[in-house]
Design a protein that fits this description.
Order of helices and strands of chain B: HEHEHHEHHEHEEHEHEHEHH
Number of helices of chain A: 16
Distance between the termini of chain A: 49 Å
Number of strands of chain A: 14
Strand content of chain A: 15-25%
Strand order of the largest sheet of chain A: 3-4-14-9-10-13
Bound molecules: pyridoxal-5'-phosphate
Structural class of chain A: alpha/beta
Radius of gyration of chain B: 17 Å
Oligomer: heterodimer
Number of helices of chain B: 12
Number of strands of chain B: 9
Order of helices and strands of chain A: EEHHEHEHEHEHHEHEHHEHEHEEHEHHEH
Strand order of the largest sheet of chain B: 5-4-3-2-1-9-8-7-6
Structural class of chain B: alpha/beta
Largest sheet of chain A: 6 strands, mixed
Largest sheet of chain B: 9 strands, parallel
Strand content of chain B: 5-15%
């Protein structure tokens, strides 16, 4: 069975739940994307920008001091933090902007929470001289002023969203409204493996380079496959990027780490797969944090990039079929993970990734000596040092 | 045949077009919603669209979005709206369709939602984020219970999609007069008229037009090209302006009567 199927379904998840105005565009986008992913010129062009502009391949680095600290684990870090703009997000925005250009679109819109995807989208738009509008919750604009400034330097227009919870989900609603209104000339660059078909597929394909590289690099170094892959899950793009190339390697365990925020027993978390029933938001069916009436709940995490009540439909499918396992790590532990990697390896990770590092302590306790792990180091922590300074 | 179908039969016999009024259930509260629906019937409204408030209304503009938020702040839910319709049904037979995003009904359980709708006296559903491709189960339950499901045709809809949409749609087909969200105003009569004619060539079912229509003059013009005209944001704005005033119902109904007279 193909994943997703022709209608964009991963089992019961995924699909296209959007206003009719967008349906024709999505069907067209799907056609164009399916043609482009098989087109050698397009693939070469994408590979060119990943290599020459973004800085791929990224290293697979054996973290020896971290491994010694954890005792049972041998930890390799897939260094997406070394990419241009500081996170994996640039893989996807370069890919989508090349699609947008082929479709003759002249205007780019994007939503952003932490600002990483906004910066990556603004960067790609600047690179190709396209008009760029970024929707960002007013609350997030306050929290991430530095990234707002970066986007503006790159020539993007940042529009504060004051509706709802004034965070990522509302920014995405606003971006969709803009899209519905300006559908003919506008390309919407979605920042994760979320949204209506073909976005979860398209973003996965653009991020899959992470796992393809990591698999090859690991085999070269260890002459076998790793025992576990671990990555943080907001919408799920960096995790899917790492996981996808290993899907058929049945012996490789996959663990997605969500944000437990102030605790899974509170309402202040972003652990969609751990706690959310199935629902429909932002154009696809997946797990969703919601109340007893089906109203979407506000998510919380110390890491703005994990702070999303939804999750990509393919992850919901991986969880349901048991191919991957999803765990949650709270704010406090994440800050511990943040400090741990900084001190042990001289790498300040993004707060999102810090959740994964904290989880390694739990995994280490359950593992036999010599267990090998690839951690997706999804981004660097420069954007978070201000926030951390106030927290510790 | 349910109340919506009967209404269109009647109107057809009389050579008339439908005027459809949208309000958000529970804005400012459900008691006023009930009073408004009964008063609308006397003011010449043919069908009422009751909006089920949702936290993330991506097809709606600021006016309806804000009214959804006000209703949510009152703790309005799908079950409470079913209760409200049940109370209306003790005094009126006006056709009522619920306008809801998909998640509230999906979370309620599709089959349960249809059963509760029948029991309450709801006649149809309009679900803007449920395209016909994803609506298989829903249509199955709704058809069995004689509940109409209204699907949309937009200016961007390719001709090849119009047939399946018209086939799946019951009660009427909702033609979106513009590419945009509710409340936007740059609809072009000529372009919409051509779109509506295209739909009508492919189906016998009534085609109603909405989005961005707010004045009697627009209602008059659009009623010449469609089987019905839908007004939402303008009425919601009138409710918002009159909230807290003793004459809320009277004032809003005066506004609505001017619109319904224009068809
Ligand atoms: C560094 C970093 N990691 C992870 C994420 C979470 O997104 P995803 O789950 O799509 O990788 C973000 C999102 O902003 C991010 O900036």
């Amino acid at each position: 069975m193909a994943l997703p199927d022709k209608q964009g379904h991963f089992g019961e998840f995924g699909g296209r739940y959007v206003p009719e105005t967008l349906m024709t565009l999505l069907i067209d986008l799907e056609k164009q994307f399916n043609a482009l992913r098989r087109n050698k010129a397009f693939r070469d062009e994408f590979a060119f920008y990943l290599k020459e502009y973004a800085g791929r391949p990224t290293n697979l680095y054996l973290a020896e001091r971290l491994s010694r600290h954890l005792r049972t684990l041998k930890v390799y870090l897939k260094r997406e933090d070394l990419l241009h703009t500081g996170a994996h997000k640039i893989n996807n925005t370069l890919g989508q902007i090349l699609v947008a250009r082929r479709m003759g679109k002249t205007r780019i819109i994007a939503e952003t929470g932490a600002g990483q995807h906004g910066v990556a989208a603004a960067t790609a738009a600047a690179l190709f001289g396209l008009e760029c509008v970024i929707y960002m919750g007013a609350e997030d604009i306050r929290r991430q002023s530095l990234n707002v400034f970066r986007m503006k330097l790159l020539g993007a227009k940042v529009i504060p969203v004051t509706s709802g919870s004034q965070t990522l989900k509302d920014a995405m609603n606003e971006a969709i409204r803009d899209w519905v209104t300006h559908v003919r000339e506008t390309f919407y660059i979605i920042g994760s493996v979320a949204g209506p078909h073909p976005y979860p597929l398209m973003v996965r394909e653009f991020q899959a380079v992470i796992g393809v590289e990591a698999r090859k690099q690991f085999l070269a170094k260890e002459r076998k496959l790793p025992d576990h892959l671990v990555a943080c899950v907001g919408g799920g793009s960096n995790a899917m990027g790492l996981f996808h190339a290993f899907y058929k390697d049945k012996g490789v365990g996959m663990i997605g780490v969500e944000a437990a925020g102030k605790g899974l027993n509170t309402h202040e978390h972003s652990a969609t797969l751990s706690k959310g029933p199935v629902g429909v938001m932002h154009g696809s069916k997946s797990n969703l944090l919601q109340d007893k009436d089906g109203q979407v709940q506000v998510a919380h995490s110390v890491a703005a990039g994990l702070d999303y009540p939804g999750v990509g439909p393919e992850h919901a499918y991986y969880q349901k079929t048991g191919r991957a396992q999803y765990v949650a790590v709270d704010d406090k532990a994440a800050i511990r993970g943040f400090k741990m990697l900084s001190r042990l390896e001289g790498i300040i990770p993004a707060l999102e990734t810090a959740h994964v590092l904290a989880y390694l302590e739990t995994l280490a306790r359950k593992s036999k000596k010599g267990t090998t792990v690839i951690v997706n180091l999804s981004g660097r922590g420069d954007k978070d040092v201000n926030q951390i300074q106030q927290l510790i | 045949m349910n109340r919506i179908d009967r209404k269109f039969e009647q109107l057809k016999e009389q050579g008339k077009k439908a005027f459809i009024a949208f309000i958000t259930a529970g804005d400012p509260n459900l008691k006023v919603t009930g009073e408004l629906v009964l008063a609308f019937e006397k003011a010449g409204v043919d069908i009422v669209e009751l909006g089920v408030p949702f936290s993330d209304p991506m097809a709606d503009g600021p006016v309806i979005q804000a009214s959804s938020q006000r209703a949510l702040d009152q703790g309005i839910s799908l079950s409470k709206i079913f209760d409200c319709v049940r109370r209306i049904r003790q005094r009126s037979d006006i056709p009522i369709a619920l306008m809801t995003y998909y998640n509230p009904v999906f979370h309620f359980g599709q089959e349960n939602a249809v059963k509760a709708a029948v029991k309450a006296g709801v006649d149809g559903f309009i679900i803007p984020d449920l395209p016909c491709e994803e609506a298989g189960d829903w249509i199955k339950y709704a058809k069995k219970a004689n509940i109409s499901t209204v699907f949309f045709v937009a200016p961007t809809t390719l001709p090849a999609r119009i047939k399946p949409i018209a086939h799946g749609s019951n009660g009427f087909i909702y033609y979106v007069s513009l590419t945009g969200v509710t409340g936007a105003k740059q609809n072009l009569l000529k372009e919409a008229a051509a779109g509506i004619r295209r739909v009508r060539r492919m189906t016998q079912k009534p085609v109603c037009v909405g989005f961005g229509i707010s004045t009697p003059a627009q209602v008059r013009a659009f009623s010449r090209v469609a089987d019905g005209v839908i007004v939402g944001s303008a009425i919601v704005r009138a409710i918002e302006k009159n909230t807290g005033q003793r004459d809320l119902v009277k004032n809003v109904v005066r506004f609505v009567r001017n619109l319904s007279c224009a068809v």
